[in-house]
Every structure is written in C-alpha cells, then in structure tokens.
Amino acid sequence: MRWPRASIVILLLVLVAGCSDPVQQSGAIAWKVPATPAAGERWTGRITVERTAGTIAAPGFNDLVDRAAPQWAGAADTAAAELLGLNGPFDGRPEIYLLQEPDGDRTVVTATLTHLGDDSVEAERYRVVLTRGGDGRFRFTSGVRTLKCHTGRGHADFSVDVCS
Question: pLDDT value at position 27?
C-alpha cells in the first residue's frame, strides 16, 4: 500500500508532537504552601540565575543555615522551598510539584512550577542539589533552572534557552 505524502507528514507531526518533556514528573507530589512554615529565621535573599547556563547561586543561604540553624533546613523539601521561595507570595496561583531523589548525604529536589501567568513560559523547573551536614541540616550545593515554552513560543522541552 502506498501512502500519500501528506498522510506521512501528518503522521510524523503527530508522533513528534508527543515527544516533548512532560510538565509533571513521575513521582512528583504537589507542594502546598504550609499554613505555618517550619520554625526558624526566614531567608530574605533570592536566588540568582545565570541566563546562558541556567546555573543557580544562592548568596547567603548556607550562611543563614550555619548561623541560625533553622528547623526548615532539617528536611530537603522545606529547605528547597525556602531556597526557591515556594512558600509565596505569588502573582496568580501557580501549581508546584516537588520530586525528591535522595543519594546518601545529598538530595536532589526538582521543583516544577506551572500556571505562571506567562504567555511564553509554560513551566519553570529548578533542579537543586542539597547536602546534609553533620548537624542534620541541608545546605545548597548547586542548581539549574530550565524553562518549557508554550506551543509556538520556543522549545517544547525543558531547556536553559529563553522562550519568545
């Protein structure tokens, strides 16, 4: 049987359309902003993101953990939430999903934020590596931010490239 060229093109487009990264990762759980955040001094700083590589810096975060020993630094999810500002406030109502992957004294926390109210960005994803110190508290080691664009606004997979 010979397929018309247009049918082959449509079939290929349908197959490729399903190949983009899913927004919510398998095993991720919805992050709900706690009514009462874990005890301890809040981090008033903000992460910085180097735009071309997506690498994250968190000036002063580990200093605060060392100096104040906040309770929230005792768990990887609450330490990541504090680092990334996931306890709000937000413009709008984003959905936030966290995935934790323990690896010895290190834990990788991936936070995916959707419904950002941005016409070009469908989702932001932060992959943060935290290391548990001898005091049981987690400290920031490294991280990367990636973006997934809305259809027609750039790349369909999570990438450090900006959306248009």
Answer: 84
What is the tens place of the pLDDT at every residue in 144-161?
999 999 999 999 999 999
What are the tokens at 103?
A: 């690896």
> Nearest-CA neighbor of 150 among 163, 137, 162, 138?
163
Cα separations (Å) of 29 from 11, 77, 78, 95, 97? Answer: 34, 11, 13, 11, 5
Q: Among all chains, which residue has been given the structure tokens 């902003």?
A: 33
**Six-digit token string for 47:** 């992460």
Can you give the pLDDT at residue 125?
98
Structural element, H or E, at residue 70: none
Higher pLDDT, 18 or 84: 84
Contact 125, 148 (CB under 8 A): yes
